[in-house]
Specification:
Rossmann fold; alpha/beta; six-stranded mixed sheet; about 40% helix
């Protein structure tokens, strides 16, 4: 049947609610029922929420601004239009700003930009700006004057990217402390004037400044992990079935898949973010999902929206590789807040969206705290981490790396495992920097897992059998490959262990042929010996 209208595409770059609603080609997935529950809070309406970058925080604040300003025409057909929202009768002045505008290379730069921000707010509220004094005091004057002028004697304050001014000083702790003190004194005025503020919401990527900045904002309620707001930002699988269904179907048509297969691929690539330990709800990265639906191509998009160099540096400093992040233990403090000076790798990766909650382990006794297992949320993040590690840590240039990967993929697709092992895998091991030492079997296996995953082989590590664990298993629709690694021994010893411990028993006699692969890493050569490949 011929389509009579173009398919609207969910936004990937529009953060202004009015622009999005008026765009005839853009689709807004309705979150206003959840925003209503959030905004109608009265006694506890001073809030904070953290989410990874490009997760729709700015669009959410823009939507809340339109709600409090009572711009009902923009909400026609949305859930909020049918709800008894206070803004329809009594609009409240809203002052919304992003701290992303308050940046610079020095403390004085930040202070100057912060003063410019307060000056703009005063102009917007049409209240006088005091030319003299400390910036936090000028902000205090603004809040008082704007609230006094408001018809309700209250204002709404929405602050995006609260943590952005400190982001550039993580490696300069002396300046970072000065900037944090300035922000502490600035944000503290919100607490002192909380009686004049009807609703306050701050957003950010991390909570890394809480021990200093947030000591002046201890009246805020952090809703980042609240169960009722787990799906406030990001797209749910149910929304793929509902308002985004036609987009998923169109993606499927472009890629030769039905709806079920296309949805499964989208979830594998972009889903998996779990923000509330008490809720099993997971959401997709909205920008990545929207980009895939817009472009009709499943690939990594999030990596291009920000630098991962800080993340990769912390992984390297911790002596880890991307493969070590598949099962990371954590507790509630890890998921919450640590100071910049002591921020653990797990906190940085979790708060930045590179790790998410994979499993919740309930306390054994009543009152015992829960613990967690963290892992990368999806295929997109795994690829971003691996590509970043290979290029930044190992120094592989992207063109060189792509050439190696493309050759390996062709060998795997054609079933040329001897070529893959003896040529591509050998060249990948040879790319490891000369000043690095692969000191044991475990480390040699970790590199194999990294290389194999980057070439699309997706090995399963440590696969259990009756008498032990195979180092890796790769299953394809037509074949099964069972791997065993050795270090400073021989590929023959690896094959012997596979047979003696019957690692391939569960696939024996099946329709797919089983191939055994023994690999030995030779530290003198700093590479693998000739692998042995033989049928079961």
């Amino acid at each position: 049947m011929r389509r009579t209208r173009p398919i609207k595409i969910p936004t990937t770059g529009v953060s202004d609610f009015e622009t999005l609603i008026r765009d005839e080609e853009a689709k807004y997935v309705d979150k206003t029922a959840l925003l209503y529950e959030l905004a109608r809070r009265k006694a506890d309406a001073q809030l904070f929420i953290s989410r990874p970058r490009r997760f729709g925080k700015s669009l959410m604040l823009s939507t809340l601004k339109a709600m409090f300003e009572g711009r009902r025409k923009l909400f026609k057909g949305l859930a909020l239009d049918k709800l008894p929202w206070e803004g329809w009768k009594t609009p409240t002045p809203v002052y919304s700003f992003t701290m992303g505008d308050v940046s610079g290379e020095t403390y004085d730069d930040v202070k100057e930009q912060l003063e410019k921000l307060v000056r703009r707010l005063c102009a917007e509220a049409e209240v006088p700006f005091c030319e003299q004094g400390y910036v936090p005091g000028q902000f205090d004057d603004f809040i008082k004057a704007a609230a006094a002028k408001s018809p309700t004697k209250k204002i709404v304050v929405l602050i995006d990217e609260y943590d952005e001014p400190v982001a550039g000083f993580l490696d300069d702790l002396k300046t970072l402390k000065r900037v944090r003190k300035l922000l502490h004194d600035f944000y503290e005025k919100l607490k002192f004037n909380s009686g004049s503020i009807r609703f306050l919401l701050m957003t950010g990527v991390t909570k890394l400044t809480k021990l200093s900045v947030f000591s002046g904002l201890n009246h805020l309620t952090d809703i980042s992990s609240f169960e009722q707001y787990a799906t406030l930002l990001g797209y749910t699988p149910e929304e793929l079935d509902g308002p985004l269904r036609e987009n998923v179907e169109e993606l499927g048509r472009k890629n030769g898949m039905d709806f079920v297969a296309a949805k499964a691929e989208l979830l594998a690539w972009y889903d998996g973010y779990r923000f509330a330990p008490r809720s099993a709800a997971r959401v997709c990265n909205p920008v990545s999902l929207g980009s895939a639906l817009k472009n009709g191509e499943l690939k990594g998009y999030w990596e291009a929206t920000g630098q991962t160099s800080l993340i990769i540096n912390r992984i390297e400093k911790a002596g880890k590789m991307p493969e070590d992040l598949e099962s990371v233990p954590a507790d509630a403090m890890t998921l919450d807040v640590c100071d910049a000076e002591t921020l653990p790798m797990e906190s940085l990766l979790y708060q930045g969206g590179y790790l998410t909650i994979k499993e919740v382990k309930r306390g054994k006794e009543k009152g015992d705290p829960d613990s967690y297992v963290l892992a990368p949320p999806n295929r997109e993040v795994r690829l971003a981490l691996k590509r970043g590690y290979l290029s930044q840590v190992m120094g592989l240039r992207e063109r060189t790396f792509n050439t190696l990967v493309d050759a390996a993929k062709r060998q795997i697709a054609s079933g040329d495992w001897r070529g893959y092992l003896c040529e591509s895998l050998f060249r990948l091991y040879a790319s490891i920097p000369p000043d690095w030492r692969i000191k044991d079997e475990a480390e040699a296996k970790r590199y194999f897992q990294l290389f194999a995953a980057m070439t699309g082989a997706n090995p399963q590590p440590e696969v259990a059998s009756m008498f032990g664990y195979a180092d890796a298993v790769i299953e394809t629709p037509t074949d099964v490959y069972v791997f065993e690694f050795k270090y400073r021994k021989s590929a023959k010893a690896a094959i012997r262990q596979i047979r003696e411990r019957d690692y391939a028993a569960k696939w024996a006699g099946g329709k797919r042929p089983v191939t055994l692969i023994g690999i030995n890493f030779n530290p003198k050569k700093r590479n693998i010996d000739m692998p042995i490949v033989e049928p079961l």
